TrEMBL record:
GO cellular component: endoplasmic reticulum; plasma membrane; ruffle
SMART domains, sorted: IPPc
Signal peptide residues on this chain, from the entry's feature table: none
Any GO BP: negative regulation of glycogen biosynthetic process
UniProt name for this protein: Inositol polyphosphate-5-phosphatase K
Transmembrane segments: none
Native species: Oryctolagus cuniculus
Domain Inositol polyphosphate-related phosphatase, residue spans: 42-376
Sequence similarity: Belongs to the inositol 1,4,5-trisphosphate 5-phosphatase type II family.
Gene: INPP5K
GO molecular function, one term: inositol bisphosphate phosphatase activity
Region of interest (Disordered), residue spans: 1-34
Source organism superkingdom: Eukaryota
Extent of Acidic residues compositional bias: 1-25
Length: 505
């Protein structure tokens, strides 16, 4: 948590009259640019969360933050970034060996809703998580995770460096050094390149130049040499959010608080350091943001909605922000020049959540509609649970592969209960190369031992993990494992096995 040194103000500078805020609907319309009408596009809904949690543990209920009770919202993806997680020595070692409390909390809430954690990266107090509905898994490839410390602000100081690795989320951590900087996940979504960055920039109103330097430093360090990944500026989408620590310049404390009390937020916009910087920095100008139609999210007395009443009386500011940058701005004739490519992001809602009191920051969320023409629309592997056979303690699994799919001896198939938390949350798994029993015309069969799986009425999924793609290449529809009580016939005979369905149960 930062201690601002120069933000209290005993003398108020001269101020102009307070101006009324712009109409919220017109401001939102100006942010979501007019887009052409595109045929045959798929729409995904994405919810982005950023929150400086000030070392606090998760509260009991985050339904509002995650929009769980919004009946009009059918989300496909959550992107969650936290800053200032508890990163003391004991806590960090514990979180490295086990899931940290925040990750566990989000999985507990989202897994029953069919969301799977596909990737995460942590650098001391920074945490970035991505969840998707399970049916999207074959179309998401995690290409890289990266940690970029930007200075000597951590408990374990070191020169700025970057840690990178190619992996799907197999439970590993990337412990970084320093509690300022950024963490990034680079992925392919239906064939499009997407980079997600969660950052924590230097505090204090006088450090604006340093914030911009760190912003540039984080962006420069997102290189992917040797991985056949384009430069980050060539990615179709960059999502950048976090505690950016930009402050409100010049205006005095009393004036700022009066504007907030009367919801005259537009009177503060011109002195917002990020908005000022965007006018001067060509690259920063390419990043879009929704209108600031919510109260500044810092700094509050903990366990209250009162702005700082300590001796420092810090001036409120919009420190917590969500930005995005599209590589291509669609033109009215874009589908005519390149009919196979279309990728567009529309902001539907941008706001804060004032009901949470555990931190001196309020969380900020952005809900987006992502419209795209998928460059990849069919999975590389098709698993066929309808052809499952059980032989005593073995389950025979059939699957087909696309002609251009490259298999590996390290590929495996996992059996999961519906409601899986992450890719390591399997009930059982089998190495494809070691357990294959037949192969013909791209149709394969492997067997899996299920002797330790009790008879249950639960639904299951099968996932094929490709070690070459470093991702899930195929996923089955949900199914039930036939109870062994009903499997009395030889599955290799022509007769179908008796199941509850065949016996009328």
């Amino acid at each position: 948590m930062e201690l601002d040194q120069e933000e209290s103000s005993s003398e108020e500078p001269e101020q102009s009259d307070v101006s009324l805020p712009d109409d919220p609907e017109s401001v939102m319309a100006s942010v979501s640019e007019q887009k052409p009408s595109e045929p045959n596009v798929w729409k995904l809904s994405m919810h982005v969360v950023t929150w400086n949690v000030a070392s606090a543990a998760p509260p009991k209920d985050l339904s509002d933050l995650l929009q769980l009770n919004n009946q009009d919202l059918d989300l496909d993806m959550y992107v969650i970034g936290l800053q200032e997680m508890n990163s003391g020595i004991v806590s960090f070692i514990s979180d490295t060996a086990f899931e940290d409390p925040w990750s566990s909390f989000f999985m507990d809430v989202l897994a029953p809703l069919s969301f799977v954690k596909v990737s995460h990266v942590r650098m001391q107090g920074l945490l970035l998580l991505i969840f998707v509905k399970y049916h999207h898994l074959p179309f998401i490839q995690i290409l890289s995770t990266k940690s970029t410390p930007t200075g000597l602000y951590g408990y374990w100081p070191s020169p700025a460096y970057s840690v990178s690795c190619l992996r799907w989320d197999l439970g590993s951590e990337t412990p970084g050094r320093g509690n300022k900087g950024g963490v990034n996940i680079c992925l392919r979504l239906y064939g499009y390149y997407v980079s997600v960055i969660n950052c924590h920039l230097p505090p204090h109103i006088a450090n604006n130049d340093k914030r911009l330097e760190h912003f540039d430093r984080i962006l420069e360090m997102q290189n992917f040499e040797g991985y056949d990944i384009p430069n980050i500026l060539d990615h179709d989408l960059i999502l950048w959010f976090g505690d950016m620590n930009f402050r409100i310049e010049d205006l005095g404390l009393h004036f700022v608080r009066e504007c907030i009390a009367n919801q005259y937020y537009s009177a503060l916009w011109e002195k917002d350091q990020l908005r000022i910087a965007k006018k001067q920095d060509l690259l920063l100008r390419e990043f879009q943001e929704g209108p600031l139609l919510f109260p500044p999210t810092y700094k509050f007395d903990k366990n209250s909605n009162n702005y700082d009443t300590s001796e420092k009386r810090r001036k409120p500011a919009w420190t917590d922000r969500i930005l995005w940058r599209l590589k291509r701005q669609p033109q009215a004739t874009s589908y005519m020049s390149n009919p196979s490519t279309y990728f567009f992001l529309t902001l539907k809602h941008y706001g804060s959540h004032m009901m949470y009191y555990i931190s001196d920051h309020k969380p900020v969320t952005g809900t987006f509609d992502l419209e795209l023409k998928p460059l990849v629309s069919a999975p590389m592997i098709t698993l066929m649970p309808e052809s499952l056979w059980t032989i005593e303690n073995d389950m025979l699994i059939s699957y087909s592969s696309e002609p251009d799919f490259l298999s590996s001896p390290w590929d495996w198939i996992g059996l999961y209960k519906l409601g899986m938390r992450h890719i390591n949350d399997y009930v059982s798994y089998v190495w494809v190369g070691d357990n294959q029993v037949s192969f013909s015309n791209n149709l394969h069969q492997v067997y899996m031992n299920i002797s330790e799986i009790p008879d249950t009425e639960d639904y299951f999924l099968l996932c094929y993990y490709s070690s070459i793609l470093n991702s899930i290449a195929g996923i089955s529809t949900p199914f039930k494992i036939p109870l062994r009580f009903f499997l009395k016939e030889d599955p290799l005979s022509e007769e179908e096995p008796q199941t509850p369905e065949h016996t009328g149960e």
